[in-house]
Amino acid sequence: MVAGVICCVGIGFIAIYTSYVIGQVKLALPSVHHYGDVGTLMMGRFGYELFTFMFLLQLVFVIGSHCLTGTIALTQITGSDICSLIFGIVSAIILLHLAIPSSFADVTILGYVDFASIIIAIGITIITTGIQATDSPGGLAAVEWSAFPKENVTFTEAYVAIGNIVFAYSFATCQFSFMDEMHTPKDFTKSIWTLGILEILIYTVTVSRVAFGIALPVIFISGAINTIVAGRLIMSRAFEYSVIRYMNTTKGWATWLVVISCVTLLAWVVAEAIQFFDDLLSIASSLFTSGFSFYLPPIM
C-alpha cells in the first residue's frame, strides 16, 4: 500500500506537469498537430519519422489493450467456454465501428457515456467488495493487505507493477491531437487538472476488480478514440496535399474505413500475440508511454 500510493500519486502529478508543458508547446507552436511534429522540431526529418512511427505504435498498443480488455470482459460476463479468439474478434469489430466518426466532435456524446460508465463501474466495485468483505468471516479486519511489498519480490514483478501505473497516466500522448479541435486551446489546463486529479483518486482508492458489464462502454469507446487519432494521423500524412484527407468525398470515406480497419486489425494481432494484460501494458509503457508522457516533455 505504501509504495503503491506513493507511485500512484507521485507519477500522477508528474503526468499533470508534463501535460502542462505539452500544452504550452502547443499554444506557442500551433502548427504542432501531433508528436511527429515535435520530432521535427527536435531532430529534423529523422525526428519526424521516428516520433511518428513511435506514436502510431503506441496507439496500436493502447487499442490492443482495449481489445484484450474487451475479450476478458465478454468472457467474464457470458461465463462461456467459447474460445477467447471469438471474443477477441467481436471486440475488434466493436472498436472498429465506434471509430468510424472521423472527428472528436462527432464522438463527444460518447465521451460522456464513457465517463459515466467508468464512474458507475468503480462505484459498484467499491460498494460490492466492501459488502462482501464485511459479510465474510472476520469482517473488514480480516481483509488481506500489506503496507510493504511481499518478501522476495523480483525485479520483473516490481517493474511490471510500475509499468502499469505509468501506462495509466498516458493521457499526454494524444494531447496535441485533442487541442487541435478545442474551441479555446488555452483552457487545456482545466482538462489536465480535472483528468489528472480524478485518475489519481481512482487509481489510489479502487481495487483491481471491475464491474465489467457497466465498464464495457469505457473499454470500447476509449479504444475507438485512439483509433481515430491514429487514423487521422495516417490520413494527414498519406494525403497531405489531397482532399481525401478531409473525408468529405466517397473516396475519402472509403480510404478512412480502410485505414481504421488496418489499424484495428494490427491492434487485434498485438492483443492476440500478448495475451497477458499486465505484460502488454508494461511493454507499451517501457517502449512509448515513458517517453511521450515523461522524458520528452522536459526536453520540449
Automatic annotation (TrEMBL):
What UniProt keywords are attached to this protein's entry?
Membrane, Transmembrane, Transmembrane helix
Membrane topology per the entry is:
Multi-pass membrane protein
According to its UniProt record, which protein family does this protein belong to?
A: Belongs to the amino acid/polyamine transporter 2 family.
Question: Does this UniProt record's set of keywords contain Signal?
Answer: no
At the top level, the lineage of the source is: Eukaryota
One cellular-component annotation, GO: membrane
Q: Per the database entry, which stretches of residues form a coiled coil?
A: none
- Source taxonomy: Eukaryota, Fungi, Dikarya, Ascomycota, Pezizomycotina
The UniProt entry, under InterPro entries, shows: AA_transpt_TM
Transmembrane stretches in the record are 50-73, 79-100, 112-131, 158-179, 214-234, 254-274
One molecular function GO term is: L-amino acid transmembrane transporter activity
Q: Does the keyword Transmembrane apply?
A: yes
Designated name of the protein: N amino acid transport system protein
Query: Where does the protein end up?
Result: Membrane
Q: Which residues form the Amino acid transporter transmembrane domain?
A: 1-206, 214-300
